[in-house]
Amino acid sequence: MALLELKHVSRSFPHAKGNLPVIEDLSFTVEEGEFVAIVGPSGCGKSTMLRIVNGLMAPTSGQVLYQGRQVDGINLECALVFQSFALMPWLSVKANVELGLEARGLAPAEREKRAGIYIDKVGLDGFEEAYPRELSGGMKQRVGLARALAVEPRLLLMDEPFSALDALTAITLREELLDIWQSADMPVDNIIMVTHIIEEAVELADRILVLSSGPGRLVADLKVELARPRDRRKEGFNALTDKVFSLIEERG
Amino acid sequence: MATQQTAAKRATSVLISLLIVAMVLALFFAYRRSGGLLHLHRPRLHVSARRLPYYAICSLARMTAAYALALIFSLVYGMLAAKGRAWERVMIPAIDIAQSVPVVGFFPAAIYFFVALAHGSRIGVEMAAVFLIFTSQAWNMALGVFESVRTLPNDSLEALDAFGATGWLRLKRLLLPACVPKLIYNSILSWVSGWYYLIACEIITVGPAHYQLPGLGSYLMTAADKGRTGELIAGLLALLAIIVLMDGIIWQPLSEWAEKFRYEFAASSEPMRSLGLFDALGSVGPTVLRTFRALMRPIVRAVHRALASTPPFEPARHPALQRASRLMRIGLAAAAFFLITLGIVNGTVALIRTLLQPWPAAVRQIPLATGASMLRMIAAYAISLAWTIPCAIAASESQRFARRLAPIAEIVGSMPATALFPLIVLFVIRVTGGMNLASILLILTGMQWYVLFNLLAGISQIPADLKEAARSFGLSRMATWRKLTLPAILPSLLTGSITAWGGGWNALILSEYFVYRGATYKVFGLGAMLDDATYQSGNGLMILLTLLSMVLVVVLLNRLVWRRLYDVATDRYRIDY
């Protein structure tokens, strides 16, 4: 059984002049253990799609199946990482990471232990008591990542996670994300990442879904067969990047 | 070291505040001479629905005049205060004081001042009324302008500098547009509080003098006083019609227009809006605006053409003119200095003379009365919090509720509770047998809306991604309140509380002492003591001492409690990640 299946999902928003369709008839499946990247021009409904998968938003029509069951309300086996980090400015790093654990009813001692582990994993050891405004952008997104990982989700959803960071920080964080995904002691097996940076998709993902804009439709579903670790200087990397580019240019 | 510095800073700001208050007090007491009022011609007020349109127009004109003054004042004052640190250090505490000092208490003094200024004509009373409404409208608008200019991103200022845009161009293209959103939002609030005080200033009783200005406020008060329920309801309906119409024709289109000038990029917040009640009227608004603009355009063009056709003026070529202008400036400064000094000297002499009078025994009761009033204020504040916080939380959970609540609150808040005072007082006295609860309820009417409006503004500023994060991680309702909603609205809650206490002190003066059909209802408290001295005994010393102790309590409370809490809140709970 597929981990996730979208069947003819559409979503529109009420607008001054009637309804504005953002996603139209989107269908795809995600298999167990896959890293899927979704690329497309701005306004193609990528982020909306991610929110529908998480259950933050209901589709206007169509179905979302998670392990064969229809998603109805927030799917607590998912965790979302935001482009804007979305950290509570009045909570310390530790309290931010514990947010999802508290919601899942863990005892305080257990919460603290788990938060400590994941703060460690993202390399923020020693910053437990700091507040988000005292951290750099890269460090804030590490907190965002730790907060998502701490709930030990089966499916990690990432909404343009590295777009608000400078290029060098983004490179480091991408590598660390891959390490986390590949390491055996991490519970996260599946990642869906929305991005507009094509190189990022080619570098990280097993599969790339290309969406067209206004309204978002599926244009292409590409398997990335390049060996890891990938590098833009290696053969095939640029060819694939160009291919995705031209797909978006033609259909966007 | 740092704490010592902030302590010193706090001490200076307290000192500056007290100095400003002392100056204002001195100025007012310099002109506290009664008598003029008694000889004024008093128009008779007719409680009949047929005269209602006339009264409505009178009140509206008064409100408009006060608002126009407040608008000009707030732009000049706010921009000056944002000009530099030194300006800010004096001007912002001054606003703080003005906002929380019970202006109603100074009203009699203001009437004497303006009547004297107008040589005893009715214009003086009108001026005093406009002045009182002005004081209920100006401060929050000025603070809005100040905040807008102060928080302007540095790069947009630099961009203008880089293009060499200075003076008028800078004002027109950057400073004024930057003020628009906050100015319009605060204008709506200012009109709400303006209506509230309209009642208090259209009926004027000072010592033996009793005076009514023709207007909705006097009409409502007289109708209530005479028990004419039908006319009272007609008057309230007229007021309601004005408020709703103004909202549809003016504030709604203006709020939509203001959206263009918003600086932030956060995709979340609901636009700062006005009523959505009468969408049909929404289309009337832009039409009116367009017609107005079309009418104005030829005038503006003509002025432009005239300006363009006159040769550029170069002051360097006219040394005589330059000299004249320099002389004029020096003359003006000297005149202003002379007038202010005269006022202060005059006032100080009057003050000292007042203080040298024999002190009545009632003075010893002032501390106790202050305590009693404080307790009433705390009770009213607690009631305000008890209903506004749940409302704000509900508004944060449901956009629909928020959209409904805001316009209703705007209308109900504008309905002058002051006009309904007789009904409330009589009802409560009949039920509880005492005036205490009535007094607390009356204070409440002057407090609660400030808290509510500020909370609603705070709620609308919670970023959408934080709300999403809370939902996405499965936070329960309680957890969302604790981790997101309550911390996020804390700064707004404190801003609202500071203004609410300001409004509360004003309401206190109106609500501890009440005359209805010749009978006086009062409780033991500072407000009642002040009223007693103003309206009954006319004892200047008692007026001075009660006012002084009220101001002292306000300033100390502000500086030592509210400011500190506010600093902590904005330091830790601001949303700026």
3D structure, described in words:
The complex is a heterodimer of chains A (252) and B (577). Chain A has helices spanning 46-54, 93-103, 108-121, 137-150, 167-182, 198-204, 237-251, and strands at 4-15, 18-30, 35-39, 61-66, 69-70, 78-81, 155-159, 190-195, 207-211, 218-223. Chain A is of the alpha/beta class and 252 residues long. Chain A folds into two domains: 1-76 and 190-217 and 243-252, P-loop containing nucleotide triphosphate hydrolases (Rossmann fold); 78-152 and 155-188, P-loop containing nucleotide triphosphate hydrolases (Rossmann fold). In chain A, helix 3 packs across helix 4 and helix 6 packs across helix 7 (237-251). Chain A is globular and about 50 Å long. Chain B has 577 residues and is mainly α. Chain B has a domain at 361-577: MetI-like (MetI-like fold, Orthogonal Bundle), CATH 1.10.3720.10. Chain B has helices at residues 2-30, 52-81, 85-100, 103-117, 122-150, 154-162, 167-202, 216-225, 229-258, 279-309, 319-355, 366-397, 399-414, 417-432, 436-460, 464-472, 477-511, 526-537, 540-573; strands at 203-206, 209-212, 513-516, 519-522. In chain B, helix 7 (167-202) packs parallel to helix 8, helix 14 (417-432) crosses helix 15 (436-460) and helix 18 (526-537) runs antiparallel to helix 19. The chains are: A alpha/beta (252), B mainly alpha (577). At the A-B interface, strand 6 and helix 2 of A face helix 16 and helix 17 of B.
What is the straight-line distance between the termini of chain B?
A: 28 Å
Structural class of chain B: mainly alpha
* Beta-strand content bin of chain B: under 5%
Provide the CATH topology of the domain at 361-577 in chain B.
MetI-like fold
Order of helices and strands of chain B: HHHHHHHEEHHHHHHHHHHEEHH
Radius of gyration of chain A: 18 Å
Using DSSP, what is the number of strands of chain B?
4
Q: Give the structural class of chain A.
A: alpha/beta
Share of residues in helices of chain A: 25-40%
- The first-to-last residue Cα distance of chain A is 32 Å
CATH superfamily of the largest domain in chain A: P-loop containing nucleotide triphosphate hydrolases
Task: Please state the overall shape of chain B, judged from the principal axes of the Cα atoms.
Answer: globular
Largest sheet of chain B: 2 strands, antiparallel
Rg result of chain B: 25 Å
**CATH architecture type of the domain at 361-577 in chain B:** Orthogonal Bundle
CATH fold topology of the largest domain in chain A = Rossmann fold
Q: What is the element string of chain A, with H for helices and E for strands?
A: EEEHEEEHHHEHEHEEH
How many separate helices of chain B?
Answer: 19
Shape of chain A: globular
As laid out across the biggest beta sheet of chain A, the strand order is: 6-7-8-3-9-10
Strand order of the largest sheet of chain B: 1-2
